[in-house]
Amino acid sequence: MAQQKHGINVRTVLTGVFAIAITVFSFYLLHHFTADMSLADVVRDIRQTPTSHVLLAVLATSVSFTAIAFYEILAVRTAAPGRVSYLTAAWAGVAGFAISDVAGFHVLTGGALRYRVYSQKGLEVPLIGHIVALSWMSLWLGMAFTVGTALALFPGGALVLNGLPTDAIRAVGFAVLALFALYILWVATGRRSIAVRGLRVGLPAGGTSVLMLVAGVVDIGASATTLYILLPADAVHTLSGFFVVYMSAVILGAISHSPGGLGVFEATMMAGLGVAGRSDVLGALLLYRFIYYFLPLVPVSLTLLFLEVARGHRAIRQSVREIGRASEPLVPPIAAGVTFVGGLVLLLSGSLPDSAAQHEWIRSVLPLPFVESSHLLASMVGLALLVVAHALLRRRESAFYLAIALLGAGAVFALTKGLDYEEAVLLVAIVLFLLPFRSAFYRKSGGSVLAVTPAWLSVMAITVAAAVWLGFFAYRHVEYSNQLWWEFSWSGDAPRFLRTSVAVVAALFALGLHMILNRRTIQVPALEPVPDSVRRLVDQSPDPDSTIALLGDKHFLVSEDESAFLMYGVSGGSFISKGDPVGDRQEGEALAWRFREMADESGYRTVFYAAKSDYLPLYLDMGLSILKIGEVARVDLSTFTLDVPQQKDMRYARRRAEKDGLSFAIVPKEDIPPLLPELKQVSDAWLSIKTGGEKRFALGYFKEDYLSCFDCAVVRKDGEVVAFANILRGAQKNEMSVDLMRYRPKVSPVMMDFLFAEVLLDAQAEGYKWFDLGAAPLAGLADHPLATSWNRIGTMIYQHGEEFYHFEGLRAFKEKFGPAWSPNYLACPGGFAVPKVLIDVTTLLSGGRLKAVRR
To answer: Tell me, what's the pLDDT at 824?
Structure first.
């Protein structure tokens, strides 16, 4: 077995490092701002919040999420009119923002949920991205408009702007409002769009833009009002200043990518309002976080689970076991979420003091060393649960059993460290939730459970930072001394916290080091000589494309009775099959499913590249999306002739070749080995004028063992080989094709036309039915306003990408032979996986990522 390693994306690492840095700095500021507070003071102030204020805050939150639903509806109406109901759009917007507000990484989490909702309604990935972009545009428009209004009308209201000239602040505010007026006027005077990385994104019309702006203002105003109601009256100097500070906190929290802007939001608010040292303000901020962030998450999560179960209502009627299958697609993320919560609870609990009453009871039952160990182990289990949550998200079977064991151990430690029965009940409840869904976690391989992503590691680091800060805040009344580290007593909560924090941080550091030094690996079969059964099936196949198996750069799945095989490669995060299975249809379908299962169990994407129409229903049954990637040109040799007007170029090429002293011949494969050095010189000369290097996997490259398997068409001048092409023959004289086509440059302008004309006439003389001229990438895609986004994007690349690849020139050359065009497909997971698949396929074909970006 061979291992394939995947490097860590530098941009992702830097994003994670930035998120950690800004969050740690924010917790440092919080620690400074809360120097004179105690945890008891904060809890007391939260409890003293009037019930009417809490109810009004809940009402304001409801208004905010109603506005979110409204501008999601407007985004759908603009990007995909009539294709999605308003109720579905409202649900996608509310659920997407509720989850992303808590989880952080807004585009990833909220975008993933929107994709699941909208893809089930038949929307394509670019269209979903368009909706997400417009929805976020409403939010940012509302924020910018509110800030502009506040600065223009109340320039002296924000403490953060103290010291700046009032007139300058007012001018900035009016400038922002003027830009809004110009924008509304611009979109109202015609259909407008903006370019985003080469793609055109349509903007809403004037009336819709105004409605989106209003919805954004209502959303921001209502969310800010939620906090404004909870804050003490004397904490806010002016309403305009409060809005400026609030939106600065929201923006910084979003930029940090920390879950819900944890720590960043609170530090920015306290700094901006100038309320350092006030426990009632911190209590209001924590209560706001619960009402606006976590309260909407409960009904959203329950509704998501209900909808997934409801989609499988027929299966639910059959048996309780089928409930798991019906809700299985959503089980891993929910299981990961609740497991993460379990770990978070254990970490936070380890940072807080236990009650004296609990200590008295425990003292009468357990010895002190046992309690001390339980306290440390409970926090370590909490950290381990954060790690396992990531593996649950990847459907790992081992993670399921490990999560059950850790949750059970955490419940025991919660009881033995301080009789924390609430934590124990929560952890046991999570276990009971996971148990019925064992079948959702089926992957037996796919890397170590410790193989977390940089983004996940950053979330873990932020969570640990929050727990550590909470501990320092809770024990700030305890004077630090070196003796604290070695103090073991029933009342030694602070020493226990210090020791536990060091252990947890050290373990987290070790995990990060492990992630850097041990990149993700996957076991794939080592390349071996092409099996005899594969060679036999290639000889029996009527499709000459199957001969690419003889190249020796692929892995093979062969049926037990050796009547079918499937060839594949591994690139990035994808298992990529070259074409459809070859051989017996029934065994081929079984191999395709086996290939799908093998990739899925390893946590990789399943891809069928250059698939044909026959197997498309099977790939659809697998849950894969079908993308047309071009067309294949096939010449009907039964009707092919050069004696027609449209073949005048071919006739001219033959006459001109004779004048240039060119001759054509078919060299049998038995005579190829002595000719290989001369063919190698031709190939090297051809490669010297190319900048992309040899292609692989789907196309042949110069390899002596490979070329020796075929007859070869050669063109000579003065006895010297100046061009060649190896000939691929299908069984039963069904079809002939060529693979490597190499020539010496500047010998004759008609050499390739001459070579192809002669090969076609030779195939016709031998009695073959068809001649395969090969594929024209991105050719034949539908160019219609109602076509899928993939077709429109591919058409745009085909029409405007001639500088990078001769799309139209290649099709025009093949069109000269009057071929019949048949579609060529890519079957792969849909959604946001498509760009990754395309990168993996391109990398595999080019032999590396650096070669893939070269012309």
So the answer is: 84
